[in-house]
Amino acid sequence: MNLKKVNKLRLLYFLTFVVAFCSIAYELALGQALSLFLGNTILRFSVTIGIYMFAMGIGAMLAEGEVIKRKVFSFVAVETSLMIIGGFSPIFLFIASFLLGNGTFFLIFALLLITIIGILTGFEIPLLMELATVEKNKKSDEGNVLGIDYLGAFVGSLVFALIFYPKFGLLQTTFFVGFLNCVVGIIFYLNWGIEKKNEKFMKEMFYLQSILALVFMVTFIFAKNLNELMVSIYLK
Amino acid sequence: MRTRKEKKQKKETELIQKKKLNRIYALTFVVAFCSILYELLLAQTISLIAGNAIIWYSITVGFFLGSLGMGAILSEKISKENIIKKLFVVEIALAFFGGIAVCLMYFVQLIDMYLLSHGNANIALVFMLLGSQFIVIVIGILSGFELPMLMNIANQYSKEKRVTNRVLGVDYFGSLFGAVLFPLFFITVFSVITVGFLVAIINTLAALYLIKVFLEKKENDKIRFVLGILLLGGFFFGVSKAEKIENVFSEKYYYYPQALHEFKDIFLPLKGAPKIETYHSAYQKIDIIDGQSFNAADIVMDAYTDKLTYEPEFPIGKELYLNGDWQFNSGTEEIYHEYFAHVPILATGKVPENVLVLGGGDGMLTRELLKYEDIKKIVQVDIDPEIVRLGKENPLFLAMNKGALSDKRVDLKIGDAYAFVKDSKDKFDAIYMDFPMALDYNVSRLYSREFYSFVRNRLNDDGFLVFDAPGVTSYTESTKEGLQILEDKKSPWKEYIHTIKSAGFEKIVPYVSYLEEDNNSARILAKEYILDKHENQLSDEELEKMIDEIIAGFVADSQESFVFAQKIAMEELSFHAPKISTYLLNEKRFERAFQLKYDSIDKIQRQYVNSVIKPTLPKRSFWQVRFPYYIN
Fold first, then answer.
1. Of A72, B24, B339, B592, which has the fewest CB atoms closer than 10 Å, so is most exposed?
2. Which of residues 7-26 of A touch B (CB under 8 A)?
3. Catalytic center residues of B
4. Which strand (E) or helix (H) includes residue B61?
5. Shortest alpha-carbon distance between residue A84 and chain B (Å)
């Protein structure tokens, strides 16, 4: 029993790491995409990072009461939304740019996208802290969760700039990250989701995540053609 | 009665608790603000020093975040007793190291350069990595302690989960504030050294506030106060002397390697060096220095150009550096600017009426273009208001660009060239792009397929585009068979050429400023120089060899590659009589400029195409540390 708890705690640390990795990658990809559409990279990046962190702050503050109480449910909901919105975010931007032009409406849409991803990310740490506290028999575990979260961000920012962006490009990167996010969701379901109530919701989310994982894998493989398509839309 | 009194008392303690909690939130905001500023400052400084911004920025931000994690984990191992005092120690240490971090980074750079100049390139790179990241790790770990400690302090006043989350939330807000202010305010106004001191001042004040508000009265905190005040004094002194400190480091950098002859030179200020003019903008650090170094150009340049005969007042020996990267030398700039401006016009035989210049805020390319009366209008777009201001106001720049930027034919716009060509509806006969080398994704966009496509849309059907190809090295084979582009793993040549092809330009022709080696007056000047320097007798053979070396060095150094591209392929390029007089460019040199051997580009190779969606520039193999000289 005890051993199982320890292992689950370790697994939770692992999930924290991956989740943080995904979040910073989404953020960097969005900043890059926004400067692609609107120019002026320094300003776009500052605004993206700024709004993102602000939204994370709001997310962290909103994560109380019912949200924390129903932590397993909340975490599954947050992750599922993140993989859909984050994984396809550059595609959303391309479509929005196609439909709305590059005026104020596009900017509002882009900032909204960043805010949503930021708020969802903000939910993660308090939820993970709470989950870790349960695994640690009610002893608080803030430092460790925070630390691992930072480590995930560390690896994420390195891998994004040095490997993902130059090697995969913008679209393929977010597909890959979305896929990783799905893996987190599936692992979480298998270890925390099954015995809980809301069984129907959990099952549905699990199926959805599995399908998404497949979609991300396929888009990742065919990203080259997708790149061409997006560039031609962008240059139209 | 009693219950009412109790109630009142309870309410009062609650009120005090709430007040204390609010103060913790405020404190969290400030220290988070400081932490993110340290992080960005370190990343900025290392990018400035190292050159390849993406790699070093990522490494630094990465290591910082990782160290934050280490700090947070380590903080779990610290007992919660006396936590206020412990946090004070953390904050004071952070202020101290954060304040001097930029200076420490500069010392790392100097030691790195010393190692390099003594032939230890690999050791130098390893030292650069370890030295710079050690500083990052120290500051990162200290910052990592903060948040868990603040959460603990907050939990002393309330055990509610809400409170922890609020501390976390406020921490994010502080980070937001710092992340926005850094690029938009701090680096646009101050040097990195000053920013370091300023943040350290804020940090020290936060530490003093911490013990003032949260430490029990009975505890003796005099020593802490004295420590804090001393630190504050030191940093204020630093702010007042920041410009001087920066200049000391700059001199070492620019007057290297003479300035770093012995190891102790690293720590001693350089004596008698000419003053360096430094300006800061949101985009770059602008340095104007007196080039003192031995330069083959100083000896033989006069043999190739009439410039000083006609313009004896033209400044000589001034060099412009952007972010420490060499841009031009005032004594040889016409090689670059004449070839850049005139070769396309001589080759097509048609002077464009409407010209777009992107970048080139120094105004010298514009000066060349304004020589044509047929050019009716020049629209120029540069992103950096500071370099444009210098181009318009600085006496040295004015002497060089002849006030070109204030000419009534020039419509000068401050803005992002990418946004301009994307959104503008105007059409031009010629577009000149004068950008620095792509060392980060911000500049890489300006060499992308998307950008070139937008530029193509801005061209009239018979229009042309020309840009210089920074980082491309051309060289003469010893057999003198002709000029070839050097394609090593650092050269972005293939990237440039396949990218421009992918944007749909029909005709793409590279050319290079390629001066002749058999120049008699140059040989005479070189001979005079050598005989002047050498007192002992030289054999004819030795003398000839030395002359050859000087001239070959000059010709190699003055090679700049350009890419000329036409939207629609027109008739063959050939020499047309110039409509203006040039100092340097003539028919013979024009013919030589096109003697470049390169692989033809019938088929676009996708793996080289630089796109914003999938960038190939800057090349990742470019793991060097920035150098004062433009070494090819």
1. B592
2. none
3. 434
4. helix B53-75
5. 20
What are the residues facing B321 on neighbouring strands? B287, B326
- Six token digits for residue B454: 């937008």
Cα(first)–Cα(last) distance of chain B, in Å? Answer: 90
A94 to chain B: nearest residue by CA?
A: B613
Res B469: pLDDT: 92
- The ipTM assigned to this model is 0.81
Chain A: residue whose CA lies nearest to B68: A150
Q: Which of A36, A60, A154 sits opposite B62 (nearest CB)?
A: A154
> Chain-wide mean pLDDT for chain B?
87
Question: For an interface test with A, which of B28, B86, B172 has the most A Cβ atoms less than 10 Å from its Cβ?
Answer: B172
- What digits encode the pLDDT tens for the residues A139-181? 777 788 888 988 898 889 888 888 888 888 888 999 999 999 9
Shortest CB distance from B69 goes to which of A35, A151, A231? A151
The tokens 């995969």 sit on which residue? A168
CA distance to partner chain B, nearest, from residue A201 (Å): 27
Report how far apart, in Å, the C-alpha atoms of B247 and of each of A158, B277, B318, B324, B511 are: 33, 9, 17, 13, 38
- Here the tokens at position A170 are 């913008």
Q: What residue of A is the nearest CA neighbor of B616?
A: A166
Per-residue pLDDT of chain A (236 residues; tens, 9 = 90+): 445 666 888 999 999 999 999 988 998 888 888 877 776 666 777 778 778 878 888 888 888 788 888 888 899 999 999 999 999 998 898 888 878 877 788 889 998 999 999 999 989 988 998 888 888 777 777 788 888 988 898 889 888 888 888 888 888 999 999 999 999 999 998 888 776 677 788 888 899 999 999 999 998 988 888 888 888 888 87
Most B CBs within 10 A among A19, A42, A165, A176, hence the mutation to make, goes to A42
Do the chains contact at B66 and A154, CB–CB below 8 Å? yes
For residue A144, give both structure tokens.
């460790």
User: Alpha-carbon distance B288 to B113, whole Å?
Assistant: 21
The predicted structure's pLDDT at residue B481: 62
What's the whole-model pTM score? 0.85
The phi-psi region of residue B286 (left if phi > 0; otherwise alpha if psi is between -120 and 50; otherwise beta) is beta
End-to-end CA distance of chain A: 61
Which residues of B fall within a CB distance of 8 Å from A169?
A: 611, 613-615
- CB-count burial class (<10 Å; 0-12, 13-18, 19+) for B572: exposed
Q: With CB atoms and an 8 Å threshold, state whether B162 touches A64.
A: yes
Round to whole Å and give the CA distance between B204 and B89.
Answer: 11
For residues A43 and B183, is the Cβ–Cβ distance under 8 A?
yes
